[in-house]
Amino acid sequence: MTIGPGVTGDRISQKIGYARSGGLGLSLEAQRIALAQAGCDPIFVEVADSGDRGQAYTAREQALDALRSGGSLFLTSLDRLGHSLVDIAALIERIFDIGAELRVLDDGLDTSNQDGARPTLMALARAQSALVSERAHDSLARRRDEGNALGPPRRLRDEHWPEIEALIAAEISVADIAQRFGVTRQTLWNFRRRMERAAANIASEPPADG
């Protein structure tokens, strides 16, 4: 979906905006307004399924195809560009290969600025946090949907720990996590302590002799 004509004669606007739905950040409408206020035209809008990392990002591809050397791609936040830091890094490299720049409004990132290294690192850190939160949010939504038909698991097993650890890192409350897994908060705390002790014991073991 594209908002705005984007073409004046044969010239494509060099302030190109890209907005994507999903996650816990700004709504699509709020992103569109911020990009429009920054002078973007056209604005490519992606109604994405944040739980499907294999989907085709048609609007993002259209935005990148529209970029020309000397132009800029505008985002409200860096996590809107992709679903992982690896994905984001590859797309930034693609933008640079075009000879274009990247502007991220919320992070004050402008890659045309020679002093942009520090904001870039800060933006990547924020993007990582936002992506973890988005994955945790999606996981809770899937569990809620599955629970309606199947019911939540009643026991915590070792294979549940990576997901629980991600939810804790995303600052999801203990009560919410316990509810999603169908256990008490005390059970969840006991399970967490057991898994963390096991990880600490593994880390403290001396390396095996070669």
UniProtKB/TrEMBL annotation:
Domain Resolvase/invertase-type recombinase catalytic, first and last residues per copy: 14-151
InterPro entries to which the protein is assigned, alphabetical: Homeodomain-like_sf, Resolv_N, Resolvase-like_N_sf
Residues covered by region (Disordered): 136-156
Basic and acidic residues bias: start-end ranges: 136-147
PROSITE patterns in the cross-refs: RECOMBINASES_3
A GO term for molecular function: DNA strand exchange activity
Record SUPFAM superfamilies: Homeodomain-like, Resolvase-like
Protein family per UniProt: Belongs to the site-specific recombinase resolvase family.
Protein name from the UniProt record: Resolvase/invertase-type recombinase catalytic domain-containing protein
Annotated source species: Sphingomonas crocodyli
